[in-house]
Every structure is written in C-alpha cells, then in structure tokens.
Amino acid sequence: xxxxxxxxxxxxxxxxxxxxxxxxxxxxxxxxxxxxxxxxxxxxxxxxxxxxxxxxxxxxxxxxxxxxxxxxxxxxxxxxxxxxxxxxxxxxxxxxxxxxxxxxxxxxxxxxxxxxxxxxxxxxxxxxxxxxxxxxxxxxxxxxxxxxxxxxxxxxxxxxxxxxxxxxxxxxxxxxxxxxxxxxxxxxxxxxxxxxxxxxxxxxxxxxxxxxxxxxxxxxxxx
Amino acid sequence: xxxxxxxxxxxxxxxxxxxxxxxxxxxxxxxxxxxxxxxxxxxxxxxxxxxxxxxxxxxxxxxxxxxxxxxxxxxxxxxxxxxxxxxxxxxxxxxxxxxxxxxxxxxxxxxxxxxxxxxxxxxxxxxxxxxxxxxxxxxxxxxxxxxxxxxxxxxxxxxxxxxxxxxxxxxxxxxxxxxxxxxxxxxxxxxxxxxxxxxxxxxxxxxxxxxxxxxxxxxxxxxxxxxxxxxxxxxxxxxxxxxxxxxxxxxxxxxxxxxxxxxxxxxxxxxxxxxxxxxxxxxxxxxxxxxxxxxxxxxxxxxxxxxxxxxxxxxxxxxxxxxxxxxxxxxxxxxxxxxxxxxxxxxxxxxxxxxxxxxxxxxxxxxxxxxxxxxxxxxxxxxxxxxxxxxxxxxxxxxxxxxxxxxxxxxxxxxxxxxxxxxxxxxxxxxxxxxxxxxxxxxxxxxxxxxxxxxxxxxxxxxxxxx
Lengths: 223, 467
Fold this sequence. Notes:
The structure holds two protein chains of two kinds.
Chain A: E1 2-6, H1 10-22, E2 26-30, H2 33-42, E3 47-51, H3 59-69, E4 74-78, H4 83-91, E5 96-99, H5 104-115, E6 125-128, E7 131-134, E8 139-142, E9 145-147, H6 151-162, E10 167-169, H7 170-178, H8 188-200, E11 209-212, E12 216-219
Parallel strand pairs in A: 1-2, 1-3, 3-4, 4-5
Antiparallel strand pairs in A: 6-7, 7-8, 8-9, 10-12, 11-12
Helix pairs in contact in A: 2-3, 6-7
Chain B: H1 2-6, H2 8-58, H3 61-69, H4 71-78, E1 83-89, E2 96-98, E3 123-128, E4 131-142, E5 146-155, H5 157-192, H6 194-205, H7 225-271, H8 277-305, H9 309-314, E6 317-320, H10 321-338, E7 342-347, E8 350-353, H11 355-371, E9 378-385, E10 389-397, H12 430-440, E11 444-450, E12 453-461
Helix pairs in contact in B: 2-5, 3-4, 7-8, 10-11, 11-12
C-alpha cells in the first residue's frame, strides 16, 4: 500500500512515517501543504493522510485542489472536533477523518478500510488454526470441541477473526461490537476480551488473542 | 444620521419643536384667515360707501360742475395713488378720470340705480404684482347729464402689507416658541435620563473582580426599576456561572496534574539509568495509559463545553426503548457479571433522542451503578413511556448516598468520596456529562438514594408535532 502523509508537525510526521513503514507500507512524507499537493498530483498513492492545520497551504486547500484532478482516498486529521469542521472536510471530498488525539491502531484500521477495493464478501466459514467459525449458524468449534458464546462474545470473536493479525484498539472494538462510538470510562472491552479468552483460549495450548500493551488486542496464530 | 436616530433626547426635542411649530402655525393661519376676511369686508364696504356717496353727490348739479372745472379737487379728495375713479356717460369721453396709478380699467356691469349696492357687487381682481384690486361700478341718474356710470376701485397695497407683516409675525412667533420648547424639552429629557447615566457609570464599574456588586435602584424613577431588577438578576446568574466556570478550570487543572505527574515522574526515573527492553516497554505502556486518560478527560471537557444544542436536537431519532435497554445490558453484561451483579433491563415505547448521546448518558449511569453496586445484587434499567415522553430509570443496590451530596452529584468533578474514587477510569465528569446531555435534549434528570437503593432517573420529552 502506497501512503502519502501530509503533516507539518515534525514529531507527528515522524511517528506516522515510522509507524506505517514498520507495518510494511510504502510511505512518503510531505512537511507542508504545497509539497503535499505536489507529491499527491505527481505520484499515484492508494491513500492520503492529510493534516488540516498547516502553514502556507492548509489541508482544505490541498483537498480542494487535489479533488479537481484526482480522487485518491483522503483521511484528514483535525484537532478541532466541532461538527462544522468535519462536515466541511467531507463536503470537500474527504473520505474519512480522525480527531487528534487518535490511537495509531485506529488510524491503521481506517486506512485499511479506505483502501479495500470493491465490496467485501462476508466469509461464511472462518478458520484460524484449529478454530472454526460457522458465521451463518453461529457455531464455533476449536480442536473439535464445541464452544458456546453469547451474542456479543460471538460478535467480538468474529471481529477478531476478520481482522487477523491487526491490532484493534479498545474504542474500535467498542464501536464495532456494541455500537458505542465514544471512549467510555469503563474497562468493558477488557472484561469482554477476558471472558472470551476464558472460552476460546484458556483450555488450549496455542493462544490466539494477544494483548498489545498500551494499544489493544491482536488476534493471531503467532504470539 | 444614525446618531440622530438613536438620540432619544434629540429626537424628543425635535418632536417638541415640530409640534409647537405646527400647532402655533395652524393657530396663526386660522387667525390670519379671519383677519384677512375682516379687512376685505371693510375695504369692500368702503368702496360701496363711496359709490353711495357719489350717488348722493351727483344729484347735485353743482357738484357736476365742480367735477368738470376742478377735477384735481377730486383727485386730492381720494388722496392716494391707489384709488381709481371714473365718472362718465356711456359711450362718451368720461367726465372725470382719477387714475394716478395708471391701473387698467376693468369692464364692469354697472349696478342700476334702483338697486341698492351691496358687498356682493364689489369685484375682486388679481391686480398688479400680486396686490389685489377691488372695484365696483354703478349707474347714477343725474339731473342734468342723465345716466352716468361710476367706476371706483382700490389697489389693496396697505392691506397686503398688513397681512404680510402679520404672516411674518406668525411664523416668527411659532419659530421662537418651537426653539424654546425644543430647548426645554432637551433639558428636561437630559435631566430625566440622569438616572440611566448613573446606572451606566455604575455598570461600568462592575467587573470580574466585583461581580457581587449590584446596580442601585435608589433615586431611579419607577419606570427603570424593572430593568434594574432584571439586570441584577442577570448579574446573579452570571456571577454564579462565573464562579462555577472558575471552579471547573481549577478542578480540571488539578485533575490534569495526576496523569502528567505520573508521566513525568515515571519517564524521568526510567531515564536515570540503562534498562532492559522489557522495562522500557512497560514504561511506554504505562505512558499510553496515562495519555489515554488525558485524552479521555480532554474529550469529556470539550463535550461539556459544547454549547450548541441545535445540532444535537436536529439529530434526534425515534429509538426503540427495548433495543436501547438491551444494548446497555449487553454492553455491561461482562463487567457486571465480574462483580456478581445481574442486569435486568426492560423497556417499551420510543425514546426521541440523539442515539450517541443517549447511549453515552445511559452508559455513564450504568458504569457508576456497577462500580458502586453491592456484590450479588441486581441492576435494574427501565424505560417507562408516558404521555409527555419517556422516563429512563437506572437503579442499583449499594451504599446510600448521603442526602447532602445528592444535589451536587451532577456538578463537574464533584465526588462523594475524594480519596476513594480517583482512578484511571473515573474523572468525576460522568454525571455532569449526563446532565449536559439531558439539557441538550430539553429533558430532566434526578437522583434519589435511600435505604441502600440509589435511583437515577432521566426524562426525555416525546417528539412533538413538527419536530
């Protein structure tokens, strides 16, 4: 995946560059809007991460000019969370946004969604190691043992299984599983994950759910 | 122009002036008309009188003789340049022409001898240079010359002058009166507005430092008292809000100290010497925890600072109450089960609310209810529809909250127990967010606590026609 990051703040630019490169993406970094627009028009990127508040040429202007020539997906970053700002960005043709401060895992998840081409077909059968998930019948077996889950536990497992290898943040899990789109002051997600582990990991040798300290959880056959 | 429009004093003074001028002028015009009519009547009467005299005179042949021989006598008799008199037989050269002003002779049908002259027989002409001219004609039977025609007239120069002077006086008096009234009006209003200026001076002196001071109504006219009372009430509200705002800022700064102190201290200690990768990872993870706490607090503060209810209200939806109750039960199921609390959630009807805000409010209440709930008790969540809207009740068993805390529970950063409740997952804003959400929905919120049962109640007004 080819990503352009347009960010004037040096520290933020650096960590985005490093973080995304470490995940195996090819990343270009522009330190201001003019360079960013230039790069965006010269090269073919899969997705652009665009900071709104920049000197010389702000993100809105970059977006406006970019949209005249290209429809590369754009995710904009803003430190202001008033609705008018968000609406403005989306009206100008942005595809998604994140409000600072945001979790890095959240950004990665959003970028993946933006670059996924075509409609995704829901898999009816999921298999991770010896864990089998029958999505339609809601039946789960691991190493031949039938496991009974509550509705939300199933939703959580399904989310993990369809995002194998990705780090999922707590707020993303809360949003996808319970439709709670705000950072709640509770550790509901941790509790739910622990209860899910109790059923699908604890009785078995190979653990599938891994805590990623400070970020969230990763579902993978590798530790 | 806009200054003129906005000055009450000037406007009133001008209105006074205008009214005085108009009314005095109208009075003057009425009197003028009266005077004019009277003068005309008298002038006409003089003309009629002259003809009557001539009729008498000319019967006497001596007089006719006199006219013929000494016309100057008659000219002198008439006395001025404004008079006109001709006497003569029809179709012949007139016997006498007295016309010092060289006035154009009007052609008049003479009034016959057997007809007494009246004022109506006097004809009026525009005359010269706007000065009116009046004339009358009559037939006179003289003894020796037969039928003679007499035309007499007069140019009304004097009358015009009198009337002009009168007119000028009327305008002059009206103007002077108008100016006097304007001045006195200006002074009166200016004096009348003194209390307002005093209030303004007083209001100028009230600032952040002395918000407790109030405007003094003493010496102010009765009309100003409601305004003074309203302003003082406004100051009360502002003062209260200001104190609260200041308190919130202070509280927030204090709340920020803990996570920042943790970040700073832990990181500085970690940097004191070389450590294992494991230790650094642990430090960074701990930092992330603190930073997330900061981010959450920031998010909450910004949420509370949101003052635009219109956007929330415009995004309301009719939500199925049963679904929402079930969602809460699902969400907190695990957390509650951990401490042995069972959730009993039921509801019916619809909730007219913005979905995210509703869920946030309910989640905050439920999280509290579980945190402070007694082990192995029941958490009850209910949505009870009524005619006006829907009540949502969150009830748990646990320690009774002392009554003195109840009214302040919804304040920002308010905690029943300072020492116990500081944790990464509690920042003392949860209930104030609930309160804000309910205010955004024009709803109501309340709490009661007795005999180990604490009950939070939210009321969402139903959808009204046109919403």
